Amino acid sequence: MSERVRALRGATTLEQDEREHLIERTQELIGQLFERNGLHEDDLVSIVFTATSDVHSAYPAEAAREAGITHVPLLCARELEIDGGIPRCIRVLVHAYTTQSQRELRHPYLHAARQLRTDLLE
User: Fold this and answer.
1) Which of 24, 28, 36, 76 is catalytic?
2) Total structural domains in the chain?
């Protein structure tokens, strides 16, 4: 299969809204997404992060920058406030070049965010 731009999703949650914890969990999420899909920074087109309204300690994009993702456009936005939603949740949407088919991609949903996509394989 030829290389195409694909979208990958994932999410994680925070136990508490503290900067170091946010950086750690967001870097874990990005790391899992890269590892599971064989991605590198040069494969990336862009990354969009969202966070629920109870996350204030840092921008999730800071974690990406601190992890060395320095030449990729990053954006942070506020997640919708849904009754019964998952608290302290960070979601990610990554656009990347890959030779994998849509069905081969592995989307990490970590910690309490796992409940968002129980249909996906770990």
Assistant:
1) 76
2) 1
CB of 18 within 8 A of CB of 36? no
Determine whether 106 is an active site residue: no
Q: What is the domain range of residue 103? A: 4-114
Active-site annotation holds for 89: no
24 is catalytic: no
From the list 110, 102, 19, 7, the residue with the least C-alpha distance to 60 is 19
Q: Which member of 18, 65, 66, 104 is catalytic?
A: 65
* Statement: the pTM of the whole predicted model exceeds 0.90: yes
Catalytic residue among 25, 62, 79, 89: 79
pLDDT band at 24 (very low <50, low <70, confident <90, very high): very high
pLDDT, tens digit (0-9, with 9 covering 90-100), for 38-92: 999 999 999 999 999 999 999 999 999 999 999 999 999 999 989 999 999 999 9
Task: Answer whether residue 122 is part of any domain.
Answer: no
